[in-house]
Amino acid sequence: MKKICVLLVSTAFCVAALANSAVRIWEESVNIPTYQIGPPDPNPLFYSNESYQGAQRRIYPYPMLDDLKHVRAEKSYKVVYLENEYIKVSVVPELGGRLFSALDKTNQYDFFYRQNVIKPALIGMLGAWISGGIEWCVFHHHRNTTYMPVDHTIRENADGSKTVWFGETERRHRMKWLIGITLYPGKSYLEATVKLFNRTPVPNSMLYWANVAVHVDENFQVIFPPSVELTTFHSKIDFSHWPVSNETYRGVDYRGKDISWWKVHPEGTSFFAWNLQEDFMGGYDHAKKAGVVHVANHNVVSGAKLWEWGTGPSAKVWDKILTDTDGPYAELMVGAFSDNQPDYSWIKPHEVKTFKQYWYPVREIGGFKKANLDAVANLELKAGNVALIGFNASSAFPGAKALLQAGNKTVFEKVFDIGPDKPFRQEVPVPAGIQETDLRVSLVADDGRELIAYQPISRKNPPLPDTAKAPAAPKDIKTNEELYLTGLRVEQIHNPTVDPLQY
Q: Is-above-0.85 flag for pTM?
């Protein structure tokens, strides 16, 4: 009888554990306070040499959506939710497929900016645009349909994961895009599968950026990989060292300031990581002891960017324009096939480009210096010969081991259980005279697999690269080949001020 009871209890425990780790996906109608806009403008607006985000602003064949009413009312939206034991996310297909919210259930931290109101402003290609969550800038920055409904469908996959697919066939180029957001059992990351289709018989140019908004305050720090020592502005017309600047950048004297902190920027600005060589970026709020990391193949997803309104008076105006009570945000943008904006690449006739991106929350480790899909790692050499080490994992790894080596000697080793809800942080004494570059920290699974490792590198303090220059006039270009390639590039990036035909 005892054996039967033990078996029943064990079975019940396993069933409960499986239920807790299962992924749920569902749709429901949700009322969200919304500032209303008028109907689309029935008058077609053709191209008039206007610039938008550094490229041509082409409205037609879409209508303008610029009749803001400034009237707040409850509006019902169909929202798709995905949830597992660690995170809960939502997608609103009616708002361009925007990933609207992402909650870390282990500490109730919104690891993307969560709007509690829909408050459009005249920022988008067609006018109306909202902040928050993830905006999918497909083919063009702040694409035409960012505030329009897109198609969607739900899929339950054989491995227990669940996916919401959304996308459209856009009208300007007749190309198509699909994005699938997937949650897996037992994983704290969300996966975005991006598919870009050129359905036409002619080459087109395209860009792709995921515009990721996060809540910020004076405690928020943007994290590029430690190998990033330079950043650049739009169109690569200015450069600064990173994270501590030595320059006046876009008219602001940043000399001696750590520009990775949101609080040091008085006005709106952008910083693109220069020559990204690692597969991650993110941000961390040191007061909330929580943040977010993005992981993707940097050979494809080669763009990493900070954009913010800043902390000055004009920024506070935008806080009121774009939200009622949710406060300031920054954008941790990540781009594929591009490292700058505006920057376009070719997509050939009938070509399909596809890639994956991942985001997951991190907590209680003081930031991070290395990240992959399994885990994030932090290592800091502090005063008094003390090393701070920290790990957080995207799934549970019971019996994992943390190792800290100083030179060829292991100075710390500990076995523990780690997971999204169980971060690890420890201060470890190290021998006197040890340099940070002598240290190596690693997290090893109980089967011997190294989940993640990090060793600081020596900084090179490289000189600033040359800034990009506008294309030379045709009369100043010596060869036919150079003329053709210059015109091709002008056409590719939808240059609003130069006619490619003159080349």
A: yes
